[in-house]
Design brief:
alpha/beta, 15% strand, globular, TIM Barrel, 11 helices, disordered N terminus
Length: 279
């Protein structure tokens, strides 16, 4: 594959290289709309496609509109679907951002939002909902983990019917995530594995990915903030090898910061790094 240096310097050449490498790779690389600084904005679809990503993860918003999730609106959903079709890029997942406000571990409203997120995600043809547990909403005790498992056991049958997966993203161990998954008694509740969060929590990321295996991970976040990928403390070569070893062929979304403050340039840099590893 011959690509000139000049073409690599432009966004067009960058997207071309990324897509050619993507065609060879099994792991699909997406990006979060919030790290594009386009949270819950349909413009994130065009931006992600132009930069060469395979998919974009969409935030469902943090502030309700008339008692509903911001993206629980047919016209808005159609805008996303139209953009996805035109740009030929997948809406690879959603994030239930509002769980940063109404914590699932102790707020009944959080349970409502999870239930509401399922049909919205299905209409977007995204199929994976990220359920975040951070800050004051973090899971810190076994009782909290058991409570979340029991809550999701009630909701999971609707996710199963819709063909939607509910992904647990948190700072607890792989083993504790599986305890919650097993308590739900549902194949629709899986781990949303974030290599940055798990590293910060002191876990061996490559070991946990192999232990979880392909069938217990719905999606992955790749990051080593505030650094560029490959320039911090995470060994991404080992991470990618672990992902390949378990045969995971889904989406890994970049949730990376922008050290230079040029979001698109930094996203291109991080995307190129990962493409080189998997290409």
């Amino acid at each position: 594959m011959q690509i000139s240096r000049r073409s690599l310097l432009g966004v067009g050449g960058t997207a071309l290289l990324a897509r050619r490498l993507a065609a060879r790779a099994r792991l699909k690389i997406g990006v979060t709309d919030w790290n594009l600084h386009l949270t819950s904005k349909v413009d994130a679809v065009e931006t992600a496609a132009r930069l060469g990503f395979d998919g974009v993860q969409v935030s469902l918003g943090r502030k309700p509109v008339d008692g509903r999730l911001p993206l629980d609106d047919l016209a808005t959903q159609q805008e996303y679907l139209t953009a996805s079709k035109i740009q030929k890029i997948a809406l690879d997942g959603t994030c239930l951002d509002i769980l940063h406000v109404n914590y699932l571990k102790n707020d009944k409203l959080g349970q409502k939002w999870v239930a509401d997120s399922i049909p919205v995600t299905r209409k977007l043809d995204a199929r994976v909902v990220l359920l975040p547990f951070f800050g004051k909403g973090a899971l810190t005790t076994r009782d909290e983990m058991d409570y979340v498992g029991d809550v999701l056991r009630e909701i999971a049958p609707e996710a199963e019917k819709a063909g939607v997966l509910l992904g647990l993203e948190d700072t607890i161990s792989a083993e504790d995530n599986v305890r919650i998954m097993e308590r739900t008694k549902s194949p629709a509740v899986l781990t949303y594995y974030d290599v940055g969060n798990s590293t910060e929590a002191g876990f061996d990321v490559a070991k946990e990915i192999r232990w979880l295996g392909r069938d217990r991970i719905c999606q992955i976040h790749l990051k080593d903030n505030p650094h560029y990928l490959g320039e911090g403390k995470i060994d991404f070569r080992a991470v990618v090898k672990a992902i390949e070893d378990i045969g995971f062929h889904g989406y890994a979304n970049l949730e990376t910061d922008s050290p230079s403050k040029s979001v698109e340039d930094d996203m291109i840099r991080n995307l190129h790094f990962i493409r080189r590893l998997i290409g």
